[in-house]
Write a structure and sequence with these properties.
- With 172 residues, the protein is of the alpha+beta class.
- It has one domain.
- Helices cover 27% and strands 8% of the residues.
- Strands 2-1-4-3 form a 4-stranded mixed β-sheet, with helices on one face.
- Helix 2 links the parallel strand 3 and strand 4.
- About 16% of the residues have low confidence.
């Protein structure tokens, strides 16, 4: 499956948000971007052509990057190639825990205990939380500009619990 997005689609550039391109592209941004882009389906390419950006894989990361690039460089041609019959059907499938955003407030793997002093290290949890806050800003921007519709269609809050084993983890 090949999807091509060119400069003639209906998405127009939006005003600057104050977030730098580096911060925006470097953040862990998870969004339902595949549904937000105009898509032209085609079979496997049989001729050579030039595109500005070729995205390999039709998962959430390629879809999100395509949305970001469309906003930042609306004149670029972007092509996404997926080997499966559907996009977001492998690693980005919800049952594979992809496409999830979380605040890292209850994750043992982000808050290890420093063996030297016994204190909980929170730097990784803070970093993940900051990235999640950027994600929330990005999603809000997408809703405000009409690229994404009803937030309830893609935000699904779920209760959280950690399953741990071993005396040290249970005591934590």
């Amino acid at each position: 499956m090949t999807m091509r997005f060119d400069a003639n689609d209906t998405i127009s550039p939006v005003s600057k948000t104050g977030v730098t391109r580096r911060n925006l592209l470097g953040s862990a941004i998870v969004a339902g971007g595949a549904a937000a882009l105009p898509i032209a389906h085609a079979d496997a390419a049989t001729t050579e052509r030039t595109v500005d950006v070729l995205l390999i894989g039709g998962g959430i990361m390629s879809a999100t990057l395509a949305v970001l690039l469309r906003e930042l460089e609306p004149t670029w041609t972007i092509e996404m190639v997926e080997r499966l019959d559907k996009v977001a059907d492998e690693s980005s499938n919800g049952w594979n825990n992809a496409g999830t955003g979380h605040s890292a407030l209850c994750e043992l793997n982000y808050t290890p205990v420093n063996t030297a002093d016994g204190k909980v290290e929170i730097a990784k949890a803070v970093e993940i939380n900051e990235q999640f806050q950027v994600t929330r800003q990005f999603l809000s921007h997408q809703v405000d500009t009409g690229i994404l519709a009803n937030p309830r269609s893609f935000i699904n809050s779920t209760p959280h619990m950690n399953l741990v084993w071993g005396d040290a983890n249970v005591a934590f």
